[in-house]
Design a protein that fits this description.
2 copies of one chain form a homodimer. Chain A is of the alpha/beta class. Chain A is about 35% helix and about 15% strand. Chain A has 2 domains: about 270 residues, Rossmann fold, CATH 3.40.50.1820; about 100 residues, Rna Polymerase Sigma Factor, Chain: A, CATH 1.10.1740. In chain A, α12 links the parallel β11 and β12. In chain A, α6 packs across α8. The longest helix of chain A has 18 residues. The two termini of chain A are about 40 Å apart.
């Protein structure tokens, strides 16, 4: 594993918790290729109960990682879902065994384009193209290795929500409850377009070197920063940007008539770009965005979304945010409708907020209370007590 | 003038119609700097009538040019507003004298960052920062040089609409009618953010060379293409992208599991990027987007939008498009409200369409008929006959 992160992070990679599947357990990919060896980096929180019925799998989003409830020891970044996962939180780690694994193709310990290929060199573009279904198959290998047959709940936002839907569609008997949040069952043309802008920005950077930048000791930081900036705009609503920044100037009383960050929103966006490049691998960004582009659950299951869930014994709660224009609330509502059409027990909760797509990551009390209600009701149906590890 | 276009276009620059203001007529800029000499490239269509009362000034958008009703002889691109301007069209060139000038800071003959500075070298980043007010002041010099005191109508979409508003605010007695289309009286934080992504993409391209690429014989084509791609997404609605492309594949029956343009929307967007770089100068893109960022008409006139129009004798018709998320219809409606609050004769027309911001550039029959109605009523009020040149 050759991590593609900033040099100061590289030596810390052996501190990650991982499991490796060898040549006897290749991962069969949607493309028909086989990936081996496969390392999955993951974190767990809480205790697995005696009958192994209290496991919650949290799936992370495009640029997330497995450190959802504690700081990432490599990057020093705080936990990304501390309001949702932890002692006494909606997903209570006194009660549930919570698992989160770095996604296939990622760059926080799970095998991805920055990992060493069998020849010892980084894969780069030799890494096979992956899909959301592949990400879920890899997670399923981890879950089996942990000795868990049925997950109590699979939950995630954005790409994490796609993985949650894919879990329920691919393994209908192994998911008791499922909470897809701010997600889509098919990636839209507009979203493909935004990701293509990001990929072109990365590939336009001469330091990308056709994907072989690690061997050259460089990274396409400028291109990756631009990609991150473009994507970041889609994660926030127009209203939130107006509320937070409007046209306020940054550290000045008058415009510069130049190309400095005159406006606070520019400064904020530049910071989003530059702080991202130290913790994320550009090729991982290419591969994961491509997997998201390819996500079309209905097409994968013969054309109808209801068809994807025809065997579902899972209970669902789908969450949408009113100001999310990356994965609009209407699309999340459609998912719930398809689930109901498939005969599944499903509800849809729309949270009225101006915080846009990223609302699931920030303080949003109505989301937290609705999620708590869904988790608690499902736990009661599953016969899980309120006691620790119950 | 050293054009920053593709080499095959450069020799044709002397075929442009221009007027140059010398050292005795410097343009005083919003920044306090003076620009001299100033060349303005422009086109006219139709004939000015005897009492010089039938002149229509059309202001172009960010990447437009003066060739609105006939093909651009340099680029070979077709006229950009043929449905609106021409014989028998809503702005009838049998009746009106139509003027369109390349915007200050542009790259189609008007002085901009690719022009030769007094030292003979291209300005590059030595070009002074400009504003929409500066663009309008430059146009006013052209209009005066053409011997026109009062314009019958100033009209434009997007940045063109900002210029139209600025004309009416700055020269309330010299604009009889004004039609701002799909525009904004203040550029939003979200739009500043999108333009900042584009600027960062350009400036990240090593061929940008801190703005001095012309001297080096190169152009930051990759960065400019990424900038164009990011902006282009904002010109189309999500619905239009779905209707035109959805998830259709480009020249293939299955995805490639790679980074080719698998999807039609990717291919379309790449074409938008690559076809743009031959006809547009990267530094012009920086300067014009910055001018748009700075546009805040209310702030320029003491805080209230109505204040900007308190002396307006102009009659207005403001047009918004329902699916425009770049300059949302609501913002256009607000402009009309401010005009009415200022005591101006103003109406607002909202066109129900899925074509997004670019609806004003494509076939939109209700827009065309509403615009015709406004123009004809204003012409009658102005005492312009229906006869040619009347």
């Amino acid at each position: 594993m050759i991590p593609a992160l900033a040099p100061n992070l590289r030596t810390a990679f052996d501190r990650l918790r991982t499991i490796t599947f060898g040549a006897d357990q290749p991962l069969l990919l949607s493309s028909g290729q086989r990936l081996s060896p496969l390392t999955i980096a993951y974190e767990t929180y809480g205790e697995l109960n005696a009958d192994r019925s209290n496991a919650v799998l949290v799936c992370h989003a495009l640029t997330g990682d497995q450190f959802l409830a504690a700081p990432n020891p490599l990057t020093g970044r705080p936990a990304w879902w501390p309001r949702i996962v932890g002692p006494g939180k909606p997903i209570d780690t006194n009660r549930f065994f919570v698992i989160c694994s770095n996604v296939l193709g990622g760059c926080m310990g799970t095998t991805g384009p920055a990992s060493a290929a069998p020849d010892g060199q980084p894969y780069g573009l030799r890494f096979p193209g992956v899909t959301v279904a592949d990400m879920v198959r890899a997670q399923a290998m981890l879950i089996e290795a942990l000795g868990i047959d049925t997950l109590f709940c699979v939950i995630g936002g954005s790409l994490g929500g796609m993985q949650a839907l894919q879990w329920a569609a691919a393994y209908p008997k192994r998911v008791f409850a499922c909470a897809p949040i701010a997600t889509a069952a098919r990636h839209s043309a507009q979203n493909i377009a935004f990701y293509e802008v990001g990929r072109q920005a990365i590939m336009a950077d001469p330091d990308w070197r056709a994907g072989d930048y690690l061997q050259a000791g460089v990274r396409p930081s400028k291109g990756l920063a631009v990609a991150r900036m473009a994507a970041h705009i889609t994660y926030l609503s127009e209203q939130a940007l107006r509320r937070k920044f409007d046209r306020a100037l940054q550290d000045r009383t008058a415009v510069s008539f130049g190309f400095d960050a005159d406006f606070q929103v520019e400064s904020y966006l530049r910071h989003q770009g530059t702080s991202f490049v130290d913790r994320f691998d550009a090729n991982s960004y290419l591969y994961i965005t491509r997997a998201i582009d390819y996500f079309d659950l209905a097409a994968d299951f013969g054309g109808g979304l209801a068809q994807a869930f025809k065997d579902a014994a899972t209970r669902f709660c789908v969450f949408g945010f009113s100001s999310d224009w990356h994965y609009p609330a209407a699309g999340n509502k459609e998912i719930a409708r398809a689930l109901i059409a498939a005969g599944a027990e499903a509800s849809y909760v729309e949270i009225d907020t101006d915080k846009g797509h990223d609302a699931f990551l920030v303080e949003e009390p109505h989301f937290e209370s609705a999620l708590t209600g869904f988790i608690d009701a499902a736990a009661a149906a599953r016969g899980l007590s309120l006691a620790a590890g119950g």
